[in-house]
Write a structure and sequence with these properties.
Helix content is 32%, strand content 29%. By secondary structure, the chain is of the alpha+beta class. It starts with 6 loop residues before the first strand and ends with a helix.
């Protein structure tokens, strides 16, 4: 599958302390956040709807607000569309890389749920940019890596999403242990 038109894949809530904010929402909604294994910042995530994640992460910039993230087929093309329509592209391209230690986990799940071959899984989920519309609302555009598109394609919360969330919770424990040393 290749994304042919923009599609909502995530809502991100920026935080000064992502751990505390995730705990706040977990206490209210019992969302079972797990720590992400991204390398660019500390964040926690959970699936909240079919193919849509809620991410609570440390801010990339001080003025960052809650944003929706749209997967697009071509990041450069959509960045040009944003500026042509009167919006702004606020960041350079941000690669969404994962901690290398956890790539085998993704490869295993990828094979388990028959999305493709484990060799398709790379250290990056894709590339991302923060944009704003003419009225100042911010949104993210993401060009997903081919393998990562498969994580967001389902019409209902899938076995892979449930398995990934369980793995994310396990990754939280491993990351905490790694940081303690």
């Amino acid at each position: 599958m290749t994304i042919s038109s923009p599609r909502l894949i995530a809502v991100t809530m920026p935080a000064s302390n992502s751990r505390d904010l995730a705990s706040f929402y977990d206490k209210i909604f019992a969302l079972n956040f797990g720590r992400t294994i991204k390398t660019d910042n500390t964040a926690f995530q959970t699936w909240i709807s079919a193919g849509v994640k809620l991410n609570i992460g440390d801010r990339y910039m001080d003025t960052e607000t809650t944003m929706v993230h749209l997967a697009v087929p071509n990041l450069a093309d959509y960045a040009k569309r944003v500026t042509a329509a009167g919006g702004k592209v606020m960041t350079a391209v941000i690669p969404l890389t994962y901690h290398p230690e956890f790539i085998p986990d993704y490869k295993e799940k990828f094979a388990q749920f028959k999305f493709g071959t484990p060799d398709e899984v790379t250290e990056t989920l894709g590339d991302f940019q923060i944009c704003s519309d003419p009225q100042g609302n911010r949104f993210g555009i993401i060009q997903l890596a081919a393998w990562a598109e498969k994580l967001f394609e389902h019409g209902e919360i899938s076995k892979i999403e449930i398995a990934e969330q369980r793995a994310s919770i396990g990754h939280s424990d491993r990351l905490e242990a790694m940081e303690a040393h």
